[in-house]
Amino acid sequence: MIGLFQENGPCRIDANGNVINNPYAWNNASNMIFIDQPAQVGFSYSTPTPGYIPDASSGEIVVLNNTSCPSENITQGTCGTYSTPEMKPNSTASAAPAFWATLQGFMGAFPQYSRKTFHFSTESYGGHYGPVFSEYIEGQNAKNIPGAHTISLETVLIGNGWYNPLIQYQAYYNFTVFPGNTYDYSPYNSTTTELLYNNLYGAGNCVDQLIECANTGSNVLCSAGDNYCAQNVESVYDVVLNRDEYDIRELQPDPFPPTFYVAYLNTAIVQSGIGAYVNYTEFSAAVGAAFNTTGDDGREDGTVENVGKLLEQGITVMMYYGDADYNCNWLGGQAVSLEVSQPHFDKAGYINITTSDGVVHGQVKQSGAFSFVRIYESGHEVPFYQPLVSLEIFERAIAGRDIATGHADIHNGYITLGPAESTYREGNSTVQFSVVNATATYNVTTGEPNPPSKKGHYVKRQPNQAHFGKVLKPAKL
Fold first, then answer.
1. Taking the model in full, what pTM does it have?
2. 267: how many CB neighbours lie within 10 A of its CB?
3. What number of helices (H) and strands (E) belong to the chain?
4. Which of 80, 83, 257, 430 could lock 6 by a disulfide, CB 3.0 to 4.6 Å apart?
5. 119 is known as an active-site residue
6. Does 128 participate in catalysis according to the annotation?
C-alpha cells in the first residue's frame, strides 16, 4: 500500500482525504498488482481478532480477549480488528512460498486479469525479497508442478535495496564520513566519527559479528550481530542528527512522503468498499519480531548470488537508488552491484539518463540486462521524489531497452561507456535545517518543500509492501 499510495499507484491522498490523480503512475505502462506481505503486514492477515495499538511508535497489537478497548485508545482511534500477532514466517526464505502461492491463487481466481509474463518490482527490504522470491519462482517453474501456473518473470526492479549487511552497514560510514554524500553535508564531528568507526571495525564489533553470522549461520549470533549494528552503527545518525534516514535533506518529523493515505484506508466507507477484514497498519511489529529471531536483516543468504542467477536465466534486473537516502544508500548499493556476476559490468561506465523533460535526473551504469541507476535529488521512495524519470526507466526496463535512452537493444553486447564513478554533486541547497511544516507539499521540480501560500497553507503538490523492520531501528520498507 505504501507503493500504491505514496509512489507509483494511480492515486494519491491529500491532507483533506481527497483522492487525487498521479499522472506518473506505473499503470500507464503495465497492469499492476500490489501485494502486502508477509502475512500481517498492511491489509494482509492470518486470523482477524479485536485489538488495539497502545503505542503507535512500536505498533505492537494488544489482543482483546473478551474485554473492552481502553477508552484512551478509542479516542486515539486505534481500536479495531487486526491480525492475530503470530511468529511466522520468520525469514525471507520462509516467506517466499506464500508469495508464490498468492500469485498462483490470483492467476487461478482472476484469469481475466492474469498474464503469462510478469515483472517484479520491490523496494528497500526488497533487496532480500526480490532476488530470493524471484529465484524461488523460477525454481517452482522448473518443477512443472501439475496444475500450477507458470510465472514467466521477465524483469526484476529493486529500489534502494538492502542486500548485503556486511557491505551496507559499512556504507553508513561511507555516506556520512568518507567519501561522503553528494549533498556536501558532513554531519559528524571528530568524536562521533571515531565512535562510529570503532563501532564498525573495533574488535568484536559490527563487522566481526556480521562475519561470524555469515560463517556460522546461527540465528542467535545473526540476530545479536544485526541488533548491535543497527543500534551502534546505523542509529548513530538518528541519535546525533534527528534527520530522516530515508532522506538526508529533511529533519524529523519529515512530512514527505505524506501518510494521509493511512487515515483514508481506515475509514469505514473505504474498508467496506474494498472488503477489508482488518484495519490497515503501515508496519507489523509481529513480523519484525519474527524476522529478528533469525537475524534475517543481518544475513546475505544468497541475495546477491540470486541476482546473478536471474541474469543467467535471461531476466532483466535493474537496481535503482535515490541518492539522498541514508537507510539503504546508493554507495552501499553501488558496492553490492559490483559483487553481482554480470559479464563486463566492471568495465561499464556511468552515462546520463535522457528523459522526455530534457532534465538530467540521474545516471546509469549498464551491461546487457543488468543496470545500476543513481537518481539525483531523491530520497528512499524514488517514484515519489522523481516520478517522471521513475516511470520512464520502468517503461524501458520492462521493454528490454537500455535505461539511458530507451532506444538501444540490451541483448547484443550493450554496455555503457563512461567514467567509472558517478561524480555529480547536488550541493546542500535543498538540505533543510529547520523542521518542515506537517502540511507542506513537495515540489518534484525544485526538490524542496513548496512555499506557503498567502493564507498560510502550503501549495498543493502536483503529482512498499508495507514497512518492515525490527522495532529496534527505523524500518526498511
1. 0.94
2. 11
3. 16, 13
4. 257
5. no
6. no
